[in-house]
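Could someone model iron/sulfur cluster with this protein?
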Amino acid sequence: MTSRYGAGMHGADSVESVSIIRPRGVAAQNPATHPLIDEVVKLNIAAKRANALELLHAIAEEHGAVTFANSLGAEDVVLTDIILREGLPIEIFSLDTGRLPAETYTLIADVEKRYGTKLKVFFPESAAVEAYVRSEGINAFYTSIELRKACCHIRKVEPLRRALAGKKAWITGMRAAQAATRANLPVREHDAGNGLEKYNPLADWSEQDVWAYIRIHELPYNALHDQFYPSIGCAPCTRAIAIGEDVRVGRWWWEDANSKECGLHVKK
Ligand code: SF4
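Reply:
Sure, complex below.
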């Protein structure tokens, strides 16, 4: 599907020609990141926050060693806000793949400043990155699904394993409405691949809920969201989408919709 910021604006659909793709001269305000907020919406968000908080308390109490995978998306700033403002005994970590957009680093700094803390960041093993790049090339992920998944494995999956080591449960900001691959997302599931429980407290939140929460609480967020990037990953593998498109369309856009996961959330 061609985005209204697609071939005409980006210059080409050829992935080889793409670095990070930004729509130029975006004048219109993005309605997805600026939902209408009235008293009904505020009450709804307050109720959803209370439910999420209750669940987070229960997760921490049941499992003890719990960590939140903060992928720095809009959903993740919501969960970060609840965990840090409520002082919940839940660790927060993020993965720095080495290929993130500049705006994501700005968000990390903004979050650290707002909450007076430092995020626990995991990096890929440098030897594995060097071997991959020397063998396959700096942007080899465009050439095949296998090489894309190999890059994601080195830069995301292996660091995630280290981040989850010793934990009994982990938490994500995933929502069911984000993609076809997440349509049946439960709030709680057993993550057999990593051998621990996995929770998705925002599974039933809509995109509007997430942005209403962000606006009501004036949270810092990734500036790319306002430029029509609902889902942000690595810079070379993320692009803007058109209003109405599936929010994951801008991730690995050259691949089939059913293969669009990075290996962090694959069931075994
Ligand atoms: S999203 Fe792209 S650059 Fe990032 S780890 Fe996966 S293939 Fe590599």
